[in-house]
Amino acid sequence: MKGALKAAAAAEMIPDGASLMIGGFMAVGTPERIIDAIVARGVRDLTVIANDTAMPGHGIGKLITAGLVRRVIASHIGLNPETQAKMIAGEIDCELVPQGTLIERIRAGGMGLGGVLTPTGLGTEVEEGKQVVEVEGKRFLVETPLRADFALIGAWQADYVGNLAYLLTAHNFNPIIALAGATVIAEPEAIVPVGVIPPDLVKTPGVLVDHLIVREI
Amino acid sequence: MDAKELIARRVACEIRAGMLVNLGIGLPSMVANFVPASLGVFFQAENGVIGLGARPPEGMQDPHLTDAGGGFVSAVPGAASIDSAMSFGLIRGGHLDMTVLGGLQVNQAGQLANWKVPGKMVPGMGGAMDLVTGAARVVVAMQHAAKGQSKIVRDCTLPLTSLRRVDLVVTDLAVIAPTEAGLELRERAPGVSLETILAATGAALIVPAQVPEMQLAP
What we know:
The complex is a heterodimer.
Chain A: E1 4-5, H1 7-12, E2 19-22, H2 32-41, E3 46-49, H3 60-65, E4 69-74, H4 81-88, E5 93-96, H5 99-110, E6 116-118, E7 132-135, E8 138-143, E9 148-158, E10 164-165, H6 174-177, E11 181-191, E12 211-213
Parallel strand pairs in A: 1-12, 2-3, 2-9, 3-4, 4-5, 9-11, 11-12
Antiparallel strand pairs in A: 6-8, 7-8, 9-10
Chain B: H1 3-12, E1 20-23, E2 42-45, E3 49-53, E4 74-81, H2 84-92, E5 98-101, E6 105-106, E7 112-113, H3 128-134, E8 138-141, E9 145-146, E10 149-150, E11 168-170, E12 174-179, E13 182-188, H4 194-200, E14 205-206
Parallel strand pairs in B: 1-2, 1-5, 5-8, 8-11, 13-14
Antiparallel strand pairs in B: 2-3, 3-4, 6-7, 9-10, 11-12, 12-13
């Protein structure tokens, strides 16, 4: 059984310079309470690995606005003009990765694989500086695995074993980053008694989850 | 009919019963409005739903159900929610029958540039590179020209999205099929002459003896 932490206590665990994988797609499925606590604590020089940086005032956008992020690895920053402005000003180092490659690099990191062979990006700017290999007559880019100090997950339901279930398009990166963070912190909308989530609906097994965030009313 | 509706209606005619289709943000998303429900087409949003439905009525939005642009959507009966690895596995693995994407430029070889204007617009490629690389069929839906400049060009001045040759380009003036031999003019928009198309195009077109007008009903 796992205890549940307040969001502020979870943020206390995250030091300056930490790397964070954060779930969510345009802030849908993003753990907002943990993000608010990180902003309140003012943790600095963060590396954020996520699909996007949402928009100002939402999800990861709050970390960008607060100036807490030094490096971003994402597929899309187009809906957050602050990320683009800080990238152009040199305040944020931004690595843009095709979305399907990004999720597979995270999956490789989490599943103990040495990387990904993908045709995506061949012959484009994405290929620059990367190894190309030929397998069974087809060319592929070699993409390296990604891991992070923390994975911050937004879920629908959790139980005290740490099992997680998600809703609709709030799955996105969450079930995959759960494998690739050294410490995994999940923020569910509700924590339900053990046994309430049917085993077939568990998308992230509790063994992967280190801490749950309690709902503060 | 405005130019965007014309393009969307023509692209809709490419969609066959039972297909799995991904529509890009903006003009391509309008295509869904012209695909009859009776075709049983499933639309995928790469953020994680197969079976994207219409925008829900005011007050019935679900914060857990959006499209890839972050807008509220609904899900049709038979829909499935999936994570991003499954979503891009479908795309890259050749399980997606068609993608419809906007374009900034298409070159003589039929290659697309649609993700970056260096120094001006650097939003990131999102899912575009995977979609163009992996979809069984790639249809580009775009205006023929922007700010008086043809978007169909000999060589792209903008960074390519993929080396892959797209399958069809639908504009407000013409339908063009990139082939091994070059860009083949297939159809004219209603009331648009061959001369107008040739004058508005920045690349060589292969012009067959007959270039019929676009048919807009599927």
